[in-house]
Amino acid sequence: MEIQTCPNCGVTKYVKHFKKMHTTKSGYCWCKLCCVEASLASNRRLKEEVFSHYGGKCSICNEADIDVLTLDHIDQQGSEHRRANKIGTGQETWRWVKKQGFPAAFRVLCFNCNTKAWRKFLRKQKELQMIKEAITVAEEFNHEI
């Protein structure tokens, strides 16, 4: 088997442990482990930059641990927004937000506050639906009289 030395970490490994799409100036591939580490570091920097722009802590409870923070669509329409813009979650959304100049439609929430905000939104939607149904029934009843 052919071997190669990773220009990033300096470790000699079998070629099967290298990614061909990631190259350095010397033209050699980085090993898969270095590629993963670089990707994780890049995503972490992006998350820190985006979340810092939106205050760096949960806008409800002030939790500042970045490992439990999320980027929240204030209007609770995240799924629709991602579908319409053909973007995924996590770093895809963070890249989109940065590219768009940090729109005001976002905020930072911790997982707990994000879940609570979503459940409040769903409860409100359900209550509105029940009111609409009650109005429809009342209107039908009034037409029968």
Structure write-up:
- By secondary structure, the protein is α+β, with helices and mostly antiparallel strands.
- It folds into 2 domains: 46 residues, no CATH class; 92 residues, no CATH class.
- Helix content is 50%, strand content 17%.
- It contains 4 helices and 6 strands, in the order E-E-E-E-H-E-H-H-E-H.
- The strands form 3 sheets. Strands 1-2 form a two-stranded antiparallel ribbon. Strands 3-4 form a two-stranded antiparallel ribbon. It has a two-stranded antiparallel sheet with strand order 5-6.
- Strand 1 and strand 2 form a beta hairpin.
- Helix 1 packs across helix 3.
- The chain is elongated and about 90 Å long.
Q: Estimate the global geometry from the Cα principal axes.
A: elongated
Q: What do the pLDDT scores average to?
A: 86
End-to-end distance: 88 Å
Beta content comes to: 15-25%
Task: Please count the beta strands (DSSP E, at least 2 residues each).
Answer: 6
